[in-house]
Amino acid sequence: MANKYLVAIDLLEDNRIQRMIADIQFLGSKPENYFHFITVMPNLRSLEAYGLNCDSPSVVEKKQQALILLTEKLERCVKQQFNLPKEQYQCHAVIGTPNYNILELAENIDADTIIIGSSSRNQRNILLGSTADYIVNNTSRSVMVIRK
Asked: Which InterPro entries does this entry report, sorted A to Z (predicted)?
């Protein structure tokens, strides 16, 4: 049975990406599995943190340019880290709120499973980080949370 996985990648959290490698490669060893990788940049003010340089004065053009650059950065990350054949995955970049955008894409692609890394940073979300906690509690889809 083929499975469609949505894998949320935070390009600013290399340690989370490292923790996901073995699991994604294991799932990717079955050629019938297909992956959609998503990264979400909160807003255009985050360009520098992501190492992106968009020089357009127009906000609309800057957003379009940022999405292209962000998608390219995600594609490089997936190619280098996960070693999957290009026919087995697709990359998506979004500017917005991770919680909502991850769930929206999961719905749009009809993902079987959402895979997300988690690292709790405060006592309120002692078991899961806030994004992982939101995803787990607001979807009927299977969720695989990868922790330390």
From this structure: Rossmann-like_a/b/a_fold (IPR014729), Universal_stress_UspA (IPR006015), UspA (IPR006016)
